[in-house]
C-alpha cells in the first residue's frame, strides 16, 4: 500500500493543477496584474495564516497534530512585514477578507479547535505548497513588481529558518507517514485536504472577480 504522504499527494494532484492554473494565478504569474492584486492576495493569506497559527500553542501538545507544529514554518510575522511594505504602516485599517477567505479561515479555525487530524490537512496544503510552488511565485513577484530579492514584499515566501527546503519536505513526509491515526481517519484527512484545495481555489475565484483583465 502507498504511504500516507504519497496518498495525500496523489489524491490532491488534480486540484493542485486546478489551483495552479486558475485564472487569477495564471494572470498573476503571467505578469498581467498590478501590484495591487498581489497586495490583495497577500491580505487574504494573512487571514489564512492567522487561522493556522493562532491556535498552535494548544495544538503543540496534541498527540496527532503536535509534531507538525514547527515554529520555523510560521508565516504571520513575515506576512505582516510584507503588508506594511505593500500597504503602508496603516495596513491593518484597510485589511479585509473576501467572503471565500472568511469561509476558508473559519474552516481552518474549526479544525484547529475540534479536529486536530483535520488541521493537519490544512497545514500540509499550505506549508508544503509554500515550500514548493511558493518559490516560483516569489521569483515572479520579484521580477514583476521589483521587490528586493527575498526582501520586503516577498518575505512570506522566504523561510529563513529552513535552509534546506527539500530536506525539510522529506522530514515532513516522514511525519505524515507516521501520523498516529487509523486508516479511516487517514481517508478523512485526505478528504479535508481536497476541501482545503477547493477553499484555495475559491479564494482565487474571488480575487479573479475583483481583478478581471480588461480584454
Ligand atoms: C501557480 C501556483 C503554484 C505552483 C507554480 C506550484 C508548484 C508546485 C511544485 C513545483 C510543487 C512540487 C513539489 C515537489 O515535487 O517537491 C508543488 C507542490 C505542492 N503544492 Fe503547489 N504550486 C502552486 C500552487 C499551489 C497552491 C495554490 C496550493 C494549495 C494551497 C499548493 C499546494 C502544494 C502542495 C501541498 C504541494 C506538496 C505536494 C507533496 O509533495 O506532497 N500549490 N507545487
Describe the structure in brief.
The chain is mainly α.
Structure keywords:
Haem_Oase, mainly alpha, binds protoporphyrin IX containing FE, 69% helix, heme oxygenase (decyclizing) activity, 215 residues, Heme Oxygenase, Chain A, heme binding, globular, single chain
Helical percent range?
55-70%
Number of helices: 12
Low-confidence stretches: none
Which percent range describes the beta-strand content?
under 5%
Number of strands: 0
Domain unit count: 1
What would you say this structure looks like, in words?
It is a single chain. The protein is mainly alpha-helical and 215 residues long. The protein has a single domain, classed as Up-down Bundle (Heme Oxygenase, Chain A). It is built from twelve helices and no strands. It has helices at residues 4-11, 13-20, 23-29, 35-54, 56-59, 76-87, 91-94, 99-114, 116-131, 134-145, 165-177, 183-210. The radius of gyration is 17 Å and the shape is globular. It starts with a helix and ends in a 5-residue tail after the last helix. Bound molecules: protoporphyrin IX containing FE (HEM). Protoporphyrin IX containing FE binds next to α2, α3, α9 and α12.
Secondary structure topology:
Blueprint lengths: L3 H8 L1 H8 L2 H7 L5 H20 L1 H4 L16 H12 L3 H4 L4 H16 L1 H16 L2 H12 L19 H13 L5 H28 L5
Helix pairs in contact: 1-12, 2-12, 4-6, 4-8, 4-12, 8-9, 8-12, 9-12
Bound molecules: protoporphyrin IX containing FE (HEM).
Protoporphyrin IX containing FE binds next to helix 2, helix 3, helix 9 and helix 12.
